């Protein structure tokens, strides 16, 4: 009897309240010695012990890798709904290091003396339902109508960072059957020096598991072994049959003695590991972890989950996983991917690409998930989420060269560069990820003074479709470097960007609200004022359909790249004179402050509908058409960003972003694709080109709007060279 | 009577957002870096958008060195008092005496009931809290040789072992607004911890509440000064204005000095989750207010005016 689980070792500590630091020391020592788990005994009625939950959270903050558990938590004294949220919280704080061991408690008299009501194995099962129900991402309120535990419409959440395993302690048949039906592990004291009938207990668990339609291999088996003394070799001999013949795969050493920990780690653990590996290989036992029936039932056809590379398996998220709700959707789009891979290194990105290529499903690449075009999630496919690659480092202070991972957010970049007095103009929102923006353009708050984000790019490192890691700059792979700056998503996955930052200190930041009832005149006037302004001014305008009984309001945001109050006012004044001003705020702030965003994930729903166009000037004809669009109700969000200035200094052929002469980028978001397309198509002759990040129209003509013929021909030639099989095709694919 | 003469303490009131755990911890660290004395977190265990406050308190205490931590305030109905008392003592021991127990009777009874908790009327909730304080103090009272017995309507202890004892005298601070809660505060608590935005009666309500607490304390044979008065406050730093706590730090100092010398408060906890504001609060408001209050307390004229 061997379920083939990877072999693990842990320690079980009774944390004396008289010497609180000792338990913390044992936890850190366990981590240092390579134990995978530290568990603290939980008897909340004992004054000589520290409170286990408090200690677990304390220790989580003082360790980095070791997993944490109780052995096991006393459920009658810890209400399960609160415990579930506490567990999810600790899992989030610790980066997914919690295992939740539960038990009915062993000293009924002491529990009763402290005011607790003892519970049966059945009630423990109800508690497990409560805990899993709280963790679930199901949108309905949680109701549990148990005999002991009743929940009547509780909120669900937060979701933990990983699928917290629930392990149950106990020896009696009722508890063993409960474990077979509901638990992810069995935790029991077993003295290997006195061989007992572990097999009978295992059989009972397996039988109950099979009856419940589960694979017995879903259930990990723990042995808590007593005080460790005597020669290490005897222990190796005693532990070996426990693993190879009796199904145990996690051995918890019960001790409070650092010396015993060290000796076990030196003399016993490595020898048992070696002997188990040898034994398993001679018995032909495959070592693997079997996901729960719940997880397996939610897998998508077409993805070979068992073949996920080992380097990616621990952070991969699939639909049955606790963390799925947090990664499935993006800012603008509801998604239901079959698998989200989260590589930590360029090498792991290559592993992810190699794996994804073999699966006959869509492949989407995500950096921050903020893209308006919504291409960073999908339905049923694979996402390579680059959020872990979020390093920001200064390479050379002299040349202001910085190296940034694709998963960093622009708000973090701004905060990291601020102490140097530097900034990189990106977009208008700090929550946007680096990768998606820096491979397409980057129309930001300092665009007219400092150009596009891609204009600051000096080199990239990327993983190509064939898994090659390569570097591209003006001298190495210059064609690839050209293509990455405007059509990067077609060529590979950039794992590091090297930018030259600008010197930027405090800036003027104004928000002006206008009565734009004469909408066309307002747009013309704002456009003319922006074009007439020196380059240190960049301005974005947002409008939507007027609310009933309200005037048409335009919100204008303006950044002046100057810390001189007079200059700031001088620059903004002509804009303020364009129409009646309803309200305004003008501040001098650090650039990083404009990019500060509240934290939070994405929970987009449905499909984004947006169109983009580039225009030279806000002519009377364009302004009239735009006013009709805004007043017509087919767009709920209409934005114009100023470009021009330094953006136009770069020759059109220098990068794959070619529409350099435009002074404005126009975006409209709509609720109905057909209605927005009809309205937009009718005014598209006023525009010349588009910005791919704000365009969701999938009609092939858009490719010709995005790239002039010469640019597109060069891109296609490069695409045949770098991605001949069109692996990277889900985001503005350039193959015709 | 006010000005009970306590040293001033300053803290932060941090939203325990589950969406950004490390940012929450970061605000606690920013609290310490700003020179403040205390980081506090609201506790609504029925709300899925929040991290569990107890877990967070322990994690934050472990990641800081100097500041005290407290819930603001802890939801008693979902946290059984005997376990809570031992957990509080444990955290106080682990942190070297940096834990305080902000405690509330609970208010959102439907949400508490939905979590499997007991639904009580507000009056029952106050009595339950009173019993819970007896349980908690009884657990901490390790030198008491008597059998530990609480025969409450809501909480019972029947011979449980006492202990562990905390590392310092943990303050029990109650979030109280209504007369019954205020009387309980005077009779049994070490602190009163209301939120200014929840006191529509403003200064008059404060004066009346202090009087109720003081009378209840005296009735229980306690010195009213045994109850520290702390206040959750919101506001903004910026150009001067007519509004309370909306202006430059000097304006805050003047206004908080009035609350200290005339209305009895000696602890101020800033809401808003804004690290820049915490920095100003800790670096500019706190030292200037301490200095001003110390000067006023030394001056006989000032103290007379204060009374």
TrEMBL record, chain A:
<dbReference type="Pfam" id="PF08031">
    <property type="entry name" value="BBE"/>
</dbReference>
<dbReference type="InterPro" id="IPR011251">
    <property type="entry name" value="Luciferase-like_dom"/>
</dbReference>
<dbReference type="InterPro" id="IPR016166">
    <property type="entry name" value="FAD-bd_PCMH"/>
</dbReference>
<keyword id="KW-0560">Oxidoreductase</keyword>
<dbReference type="InterPro" id="IPR006094">
    <property type="entry name" value="Oxid_FAD_bind_N"/>
</dbReference>
<dbReference type="InterPro" id="IPR006093">
    <property type="entry name" value="Oxy_OxRdtase_FAD_BS"/>
</dbReference>
<dbReference type="InterPro" id="IPR036661">
    <property type="entry name" value="Luciferase-like_sf"/>
</dbReference>
<comment type="similarity">
    <text>Belongs to the oxygen-dependent FAD-linked oxidoreductase family.</text>
</comment>
<protein>
    <recommendedName>
        <fullName>FAD-binding PCMH-type domain-containing protein</fullName>
    </recommendedName>
</protein>
<dbReference type="InterPro" id="IPR036318">
    <property type="entry name" value="FAD-bd_PCMH-like_sf"/>
</dbReference>
<dbReference type="InterPro" id="IPR012951">
    <property type="entry name" value="BBE"/>
</dbReference>
<dbReference type="Pfam" id="PF00296">
    <property type="entry name" value="Bac_luciferase"/>
</dbReference>
<dbReference type="GO" id="GO:0016705">
    <property type="term" value="F:oxidoreductase activity, acting on paired donors, with incorporation or reduction of molecular oxygen"/>
</dbReference>
<keyword id="KW-0274">FAD</keyword>
<dbReference type="InterPro" id="IPR050416">
    <property type="entry name" value="FAD-linked_Oxidoreductase"/>
</dbReference>
<feature type="domain" description="FAD-binding PCMH-type">
    <location>
        <begin position="332"/>
        <end position="504"/>
    </location>
</feature>
<dbReference type="InterPro" id="IPR016167">
    <property type="entry name" value="FAD-bd_PCMH_sub1"/>
</dbReference>
<dbReference type="GO" id="GO:0071949">
    <property type="term" value="F:FAD binding"/>
</dbReference>
<keyword id="KW-0285">Flavoprotein</keyword>
<dbReference type="Pfam" id="PF01565">
    <property type="entry name" value="FAD_binding_4"/>
</dbReference>
<dbReference type="InterPro" id="IPR016169">
    <property type="entry name" value="FAD-bd_PCMH_sub2"/>
</dbReference>
UniProtKB/TrEMBL annotation, chain B:
<dbReference type="InterPro" id="IPR036661">
    <property type="entry name" value="Luciferase-like_sf"/>
</dbReference>
<dbReference type="GO" id="GO:0016705">
    <property type="term" value="F:oxidoreductase activity, acting on paired donors, with incorporation or reduction of molecular oxygen"/>
</dbReference>
<dbReference type="InterPro" id="IPR050564">
    <property type="entry name" value="F420-G6PD/mer"/>
</dbReference>
<dbReference type="Pfam" id="PF00296">
    <property type="entry name" value="Bac_luciferase"/>
</dbReference>
<dbReference type="InterPro" id="IPR011251">
    <property type="entry name" value="Luciferase-like_dom"/>
</dbReference>
<feature type="domain" description="Luciferase-like">
    <location>
        <begin position="18"/>
        <end position="231"/>
    </location>
</feature>
<keyword id="KW-0560">Oxidoreductase</keyword>
<protein>
    <submittedName>
        <fullName>N5,N10-methylene tetrahydromethanopterin reductase</fullName>
    </submittedName>
</protein>
